[in-house]
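Anyone? Bumping this.
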Amino acid sequence: MRAVVFEEFKTFPTIKDVERPKPRAGEVLLKVAGAGACHSDVAIYNDFEAGGPGAVPPPFTLGHENSGWVEELGEGVEGFNVGDAYLVYGPIGCGHCKACSRGQDTYCENAAKMPYLGVGLGRDGGMAEYVSVPARNLVPLGDADPVAAAPLADAALTPYHAIKQALPHLAGGGKYALVIGLGGLGQIAVQILKALTGATVIATDMKEDAMRKAEEAGAVTVSGGEGQAQRIRDITGGRGVDAAFDFVGVGPTVQTAAASMARLSRLTVVGIAGGTLEWSFFTNPYESVVTNTYWGTIEDLHEVVDMYKAGQIVPEVHRFSMDEALDAYRKLQAGEISGRAVMVP
Ligand code: NAD
Ligand code: ZN
């Protein structure tokens, strides 16, 4: 079968013929319906260095945002019907520590001893015709369209988890949320904020068309550049935002987000671009929190699928064939994808 393989650090992936995986004990082989191209993949093959932060050693097939139909069951697996559609929860922890027990494989306490971080992250992912995954990582899609659902596994799960942790800051009337970076994750973040909170959603991106889409989803947009934090504060009547989500994560965006915060607020940096912030007692709003998040829990993913089925999350999907998969990554890297590119083999 053909697969998009990450072979070496700082090297663009290639399409290769690889052996079709056999499901091992406890695993299910899926015929891939869709595999989303996430900006983190670009970091994996283009930015990270061997042994450095974030580095996932090659070689492996990319694709950590996957959906598919059950093709074959590994030893000991029961309760799945061939042909049924599932979404894949990508993170894979040890499965028995405290974090994994609550479905939060992302924060597995034994991660250092694991041979990989997840599907498409150190172990072969879904940018292929077939992918084998642990049965416990499958979330049923029922009748929902599995191709359009593929981005849910990260582009919706990650903002959902970040927003869920910030909900106490957005409860009640007159609250403001800020979303920076309106790509794959950010557009869905706006939808989730609108569905789960009554907050005014303020959104920004460098791209005009991304801002127009966020407006269509109910956000108020703010242009970038000089004075942006002040323009954001003005919308809030000077008070600042109660929760901010940075889906870019470079220095200028985390600094703008920090400068837009109200007292008692929460800034979640989701973008992995490595931007830094200064902190001091007198320059930061009282009791404001700055944090990061990594992906989400499998329980979160079930809830995301419920929101998708209810029409509250509608990923904007652009389909690419296997032949076009490398183009999808080139375009993503060049900032030419709006919504999510999904490889449909
Ligand atoms: P994307 O390429 O689809 O979207 C990025 C968006 O940010 C684009 O619309 C782009 O125009 C905009 N942008 C870029 N620089 C900007 C700036 N300086 N100011 C305003 N807007 C700017 O990317 P994505 O797949 O949505 O991923 C977003 C980020 O989140 C990436 O850093 C990715 O690696 C990261 N990520 C993190 C997690 C996690 O668990 N923490 C999970 C998935 C993705
Ligand atoms: Zn664990």
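Late reply, but here is one note on the structure posted above: The first strand starts at residue 2 and ends at 6.
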